[in-house]
């Protein structure tokens, strides 16, 4: 029997037990954002540690950070073979609004071959697949084809504030040949994808202040600057009518798409008309010369996320608002640097600041973009493993969103990152009725097991 056939037989035989164990993990309400769940966070970390120990993983430890603990473990007996560092997170999002859940969020329930529970898809279900894949390889082969290390954190849903320092302090312990993360999704149902890039993120808040207080428009209108008018002048200066960003230097370091990447995106056959129908919009919008996938995966953005100021109650209040504000975020692509982009935004705002007001710019958290080359052997090997199990060509995609810790890993550990996810965009992660399609749980276990064999054959 091939290793895939052995894995298949093992997973079929032990599926009921595996799902029962996953349910134990999902029942722990490990909500990192809420202080009342601090004990549950510790319980989830301990559960992971004990499970790793049961799999012959060595040097397992629940290690303290400034926030919630990190779980670490390793098995390093595949002499001369590469080392994979597996990452995931055991924390989950809050469950509000609770009344929209069809079944309680921490009482796992299977309906229509979907596992409903908070964390089922993001990310406990996918973390659990790492563990069961290791269990199956030991059971069917008596060993592992590569060396493995594990790092599971409890703060991803709150921005991973403690993990960069932990990683910096433990660079030698975390040394590996690549990082595998299962916290992304398939391109579509039945269509696997390897995500090889993510956009970064930065943003600012703009506060415009005029007079000492709101002024009567009859007494002062036409003679004193209106804070909202001043703000809208600044906001209108950011983009032209096609959505092209007008901030000087904004595009200077953008890494262009290769011809091979653009062709790969075209080959996906993305249906822009269907998207318009789904979103109920009369037209899509974006930079000229780029497809929707290119715009959302590989081009930077500048978006106004919120505007506030003045009177918005019923009727009319004839005033000149003294204050107004807006929140701006930018999705960034390789090789843009968040600090540089914020400096460019500040310079642009200063250049376009109207007279008669004070403008204050406050910065938000920042995350760098990440990219492992499209043709990297580790990326292509992941694609082969998907294709063996799903029996269709693998899509190679970039993510339009951001996972800041991925860029931190790339920068601190200087390792290629392979994003091998098995979720679907329709699975309501971060929302009520989160669920995980169990056919992807089943197939993903086999993909991951095969990938270890693929990596073992590479000369890294």
From TrEMBL:
Name used for this protein in its record: Dipeptidase
GO MF annotations in UniProt: dipeptidase activity
Top-tier EC class: hydrolase
Species for this entry: Lysinibacillus louembei
Stretches assigned to the Peptidase M20 dimerisation domain: 196-355
Protein keywords: Dipeptidase, Hydrolase, Metal-binding, Protease
Enzyme Commission number(s) from the entry: 3.4.13.-
Signal peptide stretch: none
């Amino acid at each position: 029997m091939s290793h895939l056939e052995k894995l298949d037989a093992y997973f079929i035989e032990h599926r009921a037990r595996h799902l029962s164990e996953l349910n134990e993990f999902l029942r722990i309400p490990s909500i990192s954002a809420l202080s009342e769940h601090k004990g549950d966070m510790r319980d989830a970390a301990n559960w992971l540690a004990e499970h790793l120990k049961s799999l012959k993983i060595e040097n397992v430890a629940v290690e303290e950070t400034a926030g919630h603990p990190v779980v670490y473990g390793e098995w390093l007996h595949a002499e001369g073979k590469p080392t994979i560092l597996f990452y995931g997170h055991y924390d989950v999002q809050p469950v509000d609004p609770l009344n929209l859940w069809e079944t309680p969020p921490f009482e796992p329930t299977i309906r229509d071959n979907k596992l409903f529970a908070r964390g089922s898809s993001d990310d406990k279900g996918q973390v659990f697949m790492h563990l069961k894949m290791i269990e199956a390889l030991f059971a069917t082969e008596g060993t592992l084809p590569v060396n493995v290390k594990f790092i599971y954190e409890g703060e991803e849903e709150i921005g991973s504030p403690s993990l960069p320092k932990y990683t910096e302090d433990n660079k030698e312990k975390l040394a590996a040949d690549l990082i595998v993360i299962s916290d992304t999704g398939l391109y579509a149902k039945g269509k696997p994808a390897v995500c090889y890039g993510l956009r970064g993120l930065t943003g600012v808040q703009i506060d415009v202040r005029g007079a000492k207080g709101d002024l009567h428009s009859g007494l002062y209108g036409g003679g004193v600057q209106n804070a909202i008018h001043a703000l809208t002048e600044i906001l209108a200066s950011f983009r032209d009518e096609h959505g092209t960003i007008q901030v000087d230097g904004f595009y200077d370091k953008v890494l262009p798409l290769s011809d091979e990447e653009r062709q790969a995106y075209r080959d996906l056959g993305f249906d822009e008309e269907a998207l318009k129908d789904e979103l109920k919009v009369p037209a899509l919008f974006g930079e000229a010369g780029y497809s929707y996938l290119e715009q959302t995966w590989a081009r930077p953005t500048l978006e106004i996320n919120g505007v506030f100021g003045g009177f918005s109650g019923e009727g009319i209040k004839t005033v000149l608002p003294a204050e107004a504000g807006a929140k701006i975020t930018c999705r960034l692509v390789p090789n843009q640097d968040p600090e540089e982009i914020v400096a460019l935004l500040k310079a642009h705002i200063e250049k376009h600041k109207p007279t008669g007001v004070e403008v204050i710019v406050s910065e938000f958290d920042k995350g760098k973009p990440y990219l492992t080359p499209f043709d990297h052997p580790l990326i292509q090997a992941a694609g082969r493993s998907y294709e063996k199990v799903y029996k269709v060509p693998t899509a190679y995609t970039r993510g339009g969103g951001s996972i800041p810790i991925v860029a931190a890993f790339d920068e601190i550990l200087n390792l290629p990152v392979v994003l091998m996810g098995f979720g679907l965009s329709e699975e309501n992660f971060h929302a009520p009725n989160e669920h995980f399609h169990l056919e992807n749980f089943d197939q993903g276990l086999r993909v991951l097991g095969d990938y270890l064999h693929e990596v073992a054959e590479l000369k890294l």
